[in-house]
Amino acid sequence: MQRRTKYYSKLRKFRDVENECVAMRKKISVFGATGVVGRKSVNAASLLGYEIVAITGHKNHAELIRQAHEYCPRYICCTDIECYRKVKSEVTGSEILPYNEVVNIAKLDVDCCVMAMAGAVSLAPTFACLGHAKRLAIASKEAILLGGKILIDSARSGHTEIIPLDSEHNAIFRCISHDHRDVIAEITLTASGGVFLNYTENALTNVTLSDALRNPNWIMGAKVTVDSATLINKAIEIIEASLLFELPIDTVKYVIHPESIIHGIVRFRDDSYKALLSQPDMMIPIMYAVSYPELLRSSLTAPLNFTDIEKLTFRRPQAWQERNVNLAYNVFTEGKVVAFSVANEIAVSKFLNGNITFCKIYDLVARALDTCERELVSSYCDIAELIHTYTARFTDM
Fold first, then answer.
1. Which of 144, 178, 229, 353 has the highest CB neighbour count under 10 A?
2. Which domains does the chain have, with CATH numbers?
3. 389, 367 Cβ separation under 8 angstroms
């Protein structure tokens, strides 16, 4: 009897410890879980033993259903009505929510919210998660551009830590995380140059959509891949870096680095440099952002073999590339960042739908910016109103 009592006592203690471990499991929500970054983020969270509380997706119902069966999230939100119907008919054990619940999903109290939705639709859930998520791991370029300083300040006041998921910004974050900002002279973002790295502007007149979607180094969604081909993604990233790291935009530089091995470089006041090198694999910044401040080894990524790297090259941009990237400095100085983000999103959408040629992307953005005055925003509502106004104005251009 005494032995049995001791056994049950040990069993109760074991269960208490087990229950405590379950209670201590970190919770994560992933917005845009069906995209490249979203899928890797869900995978990373699973490897880290996180509880995947919520996932969202748009039209890829098959991937949402697969994730539902593998990870058993509490909530699944579908922002496309047909996707919602299909997921709801196939999935049990998770609560399936329609598009108008995406903001409420963002208000769940979690340890980490991964924001990997593309486009202006990412703005509302990004703002909604502030003050609820302890950490915002953000890959949504448009949310940072549109939210601007208001987003950064709101995150700080809501005690939500922002860690960027873009490889370039993640690299800069890692290079300066232990340094005082006043010792930083400038930062440099690298650019692969995209699929049209060696094209003259005349050669671009004949490129097709399938040409533009072949990035040489990275597997990305269609919108980001086209932005990489135009190099407008580097303009976007320069503005992002200025906002995220609260640095003057003229201290944010870029260089074309076709190998995509060096992701970010920091120059300090004494003219010393710090850089981050890795394989061009998004799992590396994702694992870092989700598990920070721990530094975990992922079996899904490979270390660099320096003897296999024949060279690391750096190039000046061609005239058309420089013109596109310089949009960053122009629109930031002129106070037209929201207009720039909306115009580019509409232009890329028109190209993806076959309505304009590749070269017309820049033309449409430049023409749209010419119709705008300096933006005066002091709240999320001001930003939302500008987006609505610009969307209506630019769609018919």
1. 144
2. 18-165 (3.40.50.720), 168-334 (no CATH)
3. no
